[in-house]
Specification:
Helix 2 crosses helix 4 (69-82) and helix 5 (88-103) crosses helix 8. The protein has helices spanning 5-8, 20-35, 40-57, 69-82, 88-103, 158-167, 175-178, 198-212, 221-228, 292-295; strands at residues 105-108, 111-115, 120-121, 129-130, 142-146, 149-152, 195-197, 216-217, 281-287, 310-313, 329-332, 335-340, 343-344, 348-349. The strands form five sheets. A four-stranded antiparallel β-sheet has the order 1-6-14-8. A four-stranded mixed β-sheet has the order 11-10-9-13. It is built from ten helices and 14 strands. Pfam families: FGE-sulfatase. Residues 103-347 form the Sulfatase-modifying factor enzyme-like domain. This is Sulfatase-modifying factor enzyme-like domain-containing protein.
């Protein structure tokens, strides 16, 4: 009887359907056969054991309505190469995370827009124009031309960020709070991730991109505003209609106001992106400079080369809509003292549509 890997298990192993999981199983079968030695009997037992594992206890394959089986199989392979010793269940969680990250990307066609705090009608004198907020760093309206990109429709969730941190060997943050019945809902896996350090948020996006097979990062400040304003439209708030309707498209008192909510709890903006008006404030990639808007290049600006603070965009559920304009900016040191629900993030990619 032939003793080669290609022929030995034919007849013992049925033809596996072409799925992402079957490709992964073939990889493991080949690996196990090579490690089992040249004895035919040992190889038979190896094949039978693998069949038992596959048929009885392996998790179901990851599927997608947008990604092909071949693309998912490639994600499996990248996860396998990075984490060869994790369990099949944990491997599947990482694959699902990468697939979900790609599925949730909203394509934003590039274009030119006027970035910054343009004037709006004054309530007390409609013949004048008024700035939306009192932050002088965004009052220089300037032309920006952006290349096309894709941005996640959701803020990064607690569940996905926890999985990333676990595989980095990090303990869960606020573990004492998580064990409390009264506080447990703060850490629901579908709520926005709590963050502490800007660098960890960028590291997460790049980590997901490695498995997804595309480069991912935090959005630039210009990308964030362009997406929030649905490709640069004159939208004051990043809601479904550009206005605030508390309880329908924005939190209200008694409706989780002051606490983060599960991502996607309110309607998205016209591009299909959620929670850019409220939930957590979001880190972007840019360093902060009060004068940058007057110095910014037109084409794909990325912020100052260095500074002592990073920019955050968007509003938090516990603040007034007046702090949640599409042009509003916040600046904080990149390293905070504690993990907080106030600060979240989402990822972006320049991968083609």
């Amino acid at each position: 009887m032939a003793n080669s890997e290609g022929n030995f298990c034919s007849g013992l192993i049925p033809t596996l359907p072409e799925t992402p999981l079957s490709g992964n199983i073939r990889i493991r079968i080949r690996k196990s056969i090579k490690q089992s030695g040249d004895f035919q009997l040992r190889s038979i037992f190896t094949c039978l054991a693998l069949l038992t594992i596959w048929g009885c206890s392996s998790p179901p394959p990851v599927t997608s309505n947008t990604l092909s089986d071949k693309e998912i199989q490639s994600i499996y392979q990248r996860v396998e190469n990075t984490y060869p010793d994790i369990s099949a269940d944990k491997e599947r969680e990482v694959v699902k995370l990468a697939v979900r990250a790609l599925e949730n990307m909203v394509y934003v066609e590039g274009g030119t827009f006027q970035m910054g705090d343009w004037v709006i009608e004054c309530q007390w004198d409609k013949s004048q124009g008024c700035r939306m907020d009192m932050d002088t760093s965004n009052d220089h309206v300037h032309e920006v031309k952006l290349s096309s990109f894709s941005i996640s429709k959701y803020e990064t969730t607690m569940g996905d960020f926890d999985l990333y941190r676990e595989l980095q060997g990090k303990e869960p943050y606020r573990e004492d709070w998580r064990e409390s019945e009264e506080l447990a809902d703060l850490f629901h896996p579908r709520k926005p991730a709590w963050t502490k350090d800007w660098q960890e948020t960028q590291d997460y996006c790049q980590w997901v991109g490695e498995f997804a097979g595309v480069e991912m990062d935090l959005p630039t400040e210009a990308q964030w505003e362009y997406a929030a304003r649905s490709r640069g439209r004159w939208l004051i708030w990043a809601t479904d209609n550009g206005e605030i309707d508390p309880g329908r498209n924005f939190p209200k008192d008694g409706d989780g106001f002051g606490e983060t909510q599960k991502v996607g709890s309110y309607p998205p903006n016209p591009l299909g992106i959620y929670d850019m008006a409220a939930n957590s404030k979001e880190w972007v990639s840019d360093w902060y400079s009060e004068t940058y808007y007057s110095e910014s290049p037109i084409k794909d600006p990325t912020g100052p080369s260095s500074a002592d603070k990073k920019v955050l965009r968007g509003g938090f559920n516990g603040v007034s809509p007046d702090s949640s304009f599409t042009v509003s900016r916040t600046a904080l040191p990149p390293n905070q003292k504690e993990y907080t629900r106030l600060l979240g993030f989402r990822c972006t990619t320049r991968a083609p549509k």
